[in-house]
Here is the input.
Amino acid sequence: MQLARSHMAQFVGIANYEAAGGAVMRDLFELDDGGWLLDPTLLDRLVIKKLQAKAKTLRAEGWKWIAVAPDFPYGHTAGLRQLDGQTVDLTDEERASRDALQAELDRLEQQYADADKLPDTVDQRLGEIETALAAFEERPAVYDPTEAARAGVFVSIDRAAIIGSNEATSVRKMSRLSSVESDGGDAPAASEPPGIARRAVISIGTNGHADPQSEPEEDDGLKPLSERLITELTAHRTLALRDAVAKDPNVAFAAVLHALCIGTFYRMSSGTCLEISAKSATFSTQAPGLADSASAKPIEARHQQGAKQLPKDENGLWQALVGFDGDSQAALFAHCASLSVNAVHEPWNRGPRRLAHADTVARAVNLDMAAAGWTPTVDNYLGRVPKARILEAVREAKGEASAQLIDHLKKPEMAKEAERLLASTRWVPEPLRTPEANRTGPDVQVEGDVEGLPAFLGEGDDEEADEQAVSDPEEPQQHTVAAE
Here is the structure.
């Protein structure tokens, strides 16, 4: 059964429902809000028919899909964006009518400004004028046909029993636009929105089946609430809680921190109502010395310190967190958030946006890998790249003359000598650099600076050494080879 005051019944109209053969049960001795409609299947059919009539007028506008339903689930527009239409201007006749109504409204309000009670006829007339003026404000919109051809319309009932127009023109985000674009032909007149309408449209009951929204009849005994009713009630509570949390940044911060701490320190737990999780990427390829690096040690120390501050049982976590001062909360939050960072180049995950954001975060924290303790060695870089890369590194950091002084060496000796040359230069390879608008690479020494070269390369006259290195770099017999 449906109450006569329900939005669906009001949308169709009780008289239209009865004219179609629907029965209404009324109680003469109780307040029943107009009675109960006994044929919910018929009511569903009449609602859909009226909505489809509205959809029919929209088909001529060329929308790719039109979804029709009495109501759509909360969040059904997720992944969609609202199209901006051009509001249709008032005609001269409509503008004159609006001005006349506004003048009449002003005159009546002024005439009865001091009256304790308005006459019924005046009160009714004021309501009519206000409704008419509101209609002038709600102007229809015209949309670009090319956008309409790849977008769609939701047609449903609002709670005032008026066909909703506030969400009638939504389109998928640009990143997913290709999934709804037509193949170059005309857009289907009333096709379903991909992945949306199929779930959202409420089917009409047939073959004598009961109204899917009605609850089973119960006797007078007090029984537990149905799962469906509890779900619907808690959906209302969830929205109210979201609104309340949004108005209290301190609680919002504590709730997010609580969720992050559960995932960071307690693992495999669902003790939070926030659908927030921070994944900590594992490194599929272990770089040499990663666990003992200058960055790994403070991270582990912070984690151990955080674990000592928190209770062993997550049930006491909330009280512990809200008891911390602001600095302690912020430090713990930063630690948990930091563990979710993943700036690793992954061949199977080539999306550029993740790594571009890593660059943004690196600039925000002024990341300097040389200052963070990374220095090129034979193990972590120089011994794993071709000779040309080794020479490029030395050339960038120490200048062309230094590169020429080792370019005759075999790969193992070249890598070893390059490690010593680069030790104090703060040079890092391209993947470790933080891109900046005013920085294209590491600081480069003045060409010819051979300070710090080993004695067998730096002794004697600098110019003579340079000339010898340049004259015949391909003949190793003219150079002394570094000893192991």
Remarks:
- Strands lie at 2-3, 24-25, 36-37, 65-68, 80-82, 86-87, 141-142, 152-155, 170-172.
- The chain has 18 helices and nine strands.
- The chain has a mean pLDDT of 76.
